[in-house]
Amino acid sequence: MPFGNTGVPQYNDAGSQTMRLNTFRLDQHGLARLFGELEAKIMNVVWSLEEPTVQDVVARLGKRANYKTVMTVMNRLAAKGFLERRKVSRAFVYMPRFTREELMERLSREVLDGLIADFGPAVLAQFVEAVEEADRARLTELAELVESKLTREKRRRA
């Protein structure tokens, strides 16, 4: 599922796939921050249908969806590793490579890794502030998570 500037899967030294985000759009929401708008819509449709064809996705997207455009985007999503496809009769059916939850977890980790690498402690401080502003109860949850991690780390070192 990883992709770099070329959109081609990348692998680490152990042969496991790694992920690289190309873009993060602050003016968008949800998956559209990470994918193009049509890519995000297509991923949502594929998650909602069981092994759809391009025609199934076009039908779900509505009248304004162009078959060839949707097919091209779905093939690119498959090439990037987000979708898998297999031929059934004369058409390809597509399946998501990851559940929505798995993908969100992987992508959010990639975004955080990049922010921490680029901005260091400032990101952590802003993250805590944002959590507090969004939901004070989550701040307690975050503190408990940090404490649990620190306790495990101490045990491991002992």
- What is the overall shape? elongated
Briefly, what CATH class of the largest domain? Mainly Alpha
Q: Output the helix-strand order.
A: EEHHHEEHHH
In total, the number of strands is 4
Description:
This protein is mostly helical. The protein folds into 2 domains: 10-96, Arc Repressor Mutant, subunit A (Orthogonal Bundle), CATH 1.10.10.10; 100-157. It is 56% helix and 10% strand. It has 6 helices and 4 strands. The chain has helices at 37-48, 54-61, 67-79, 100-119, 121-134, 136-157, and strands spanning 10-11, 17-18, 83-88, 91-96. Strands 1-2 form a two-stranded antiparallel sheet. The chain has a two-stranded antiparallel ribbon with strand order 3-4. A hairpin with a 2-residue loop joins strand 3 and strand 4.
Quickly describe the structure.
The protein is 56% helix and 10% strand. The chain is mainly α. It folds into two domains: 10-96, Arc Repressor Mutant, subunit A, CATH 1.10.10; 100-157.
Topology overview:
Blueprint: E1 10-11, E2 17-18, H1 37-48, H2 54-61, H3 67-79, E3 83-88, E4 91-96, H4 100-119, H5 121-134, H6 136-157
Helix pairs in contact: 2-3, 5-6
Q: What key attributes describe this structure?
A:
disordered N terminus, two-stranded antiparallel sheet, elongated, 158 residues, 10% strand, 2 domains, mainly alpha, Arc Repressor Mutant, subunit A
